[in-house]
Specification:
- The chain is mainly beta.
- It has helices at residues 55-63, 76-84, 92-96, 156-159; strands spanning 14-15, 17-22, 28-33, 36-41, 44-51, 65-70, 100-102, 109-111, 116-128, 131-143, 163-165, 170-172.
- The chain has one domain (14-186): Electron Transport, Fmn-binding Protein, Chain A (Pnp Oxidase, Chain A), CATH 2.30.110.
Length: 188
């Protein structure tokens, strides 16, 4: 029997993404978010939701762009730090000993050490209660060669992305391959 647990911001899985922006003085900043995902296939777009109170919010508004750096398991501590500290108070890249890299396509930095980067120009913003949802068109994806499969596509088992569980506020790794999409269910 299912039990009601109330209305909560709960879905499985949620990403652990690091959103990169420049502040008004051109200083690179990054913050960890879990409220995000693919929102359109043509044009390819993602959404990220931030509170107005965050330092990164103003950077997205000012520059009309952002990046999403996807950390591997090896960087879970740094990813968590990017969600704890404020760029108003410190240079997060310096404190985390990570490298801000200037995107060559959009006015936003990304984390050089993370294996997958999405460079996005801002298309839309929508106020949704406490958060603003920013829709960014993916202008390019940069991937470390070491995480690509034989066809040149990112391989989730090589990336080893960090997954966030909102219910218990914990990070997880991915599990094993359960089958191919659009074929596993052909013979239920």
């Amino acid at each position: 029997m299912k039990q009601s647990i109330g209305a909560k911001p709960l879905a499985f899985p949620t990403p652990t993404w690091v959103v990169g922006t420049y502040d008004m003085n051109g200083k690179p900043n990054a913050m960890t978010i879990a409220w995000g995902g693919i929102c359109c296939s043509n044009p390819p777009c993602i959404s990220v939701s931030l509170r107005k109170a965050t330092y990164s919010y103003a950077g997205i508004i000012e520059n009309k762009a952002f990046t999403v750096s996807i950390p591997s398991e090896n960087y879970v501590k740094q990813a968590d730090y990017f969600g704890i500290a404020s760029g108003r108070d410190e240079n997060k890249f310096d404190c985390a000993c990570l490298t801000p890299v200037r995107s060559d396509l959009v006015p936003a930095p990304y984390v050089g050490e993370f294996p997958i980067i999405l460079e996005c120009k801002l298309l839309h913003s929508l106020e949704v209660g406490l958060h603003t949802m920013f829709v960014g068109e993916i202008m390019d994806i940069k991937a470390e060669e070491s995480v690509l499969d034989e066809n040149g596509n990112p391989d989730i088992e090589k990336i080893r992305p960090v997954i966030y569980a909102t219910g218990n506020r914990s990070y997880y790794s991915i599990g094993s391959n359960l089958g191919k999409a659009f074929s596993t269910g052909k013979n239920p």
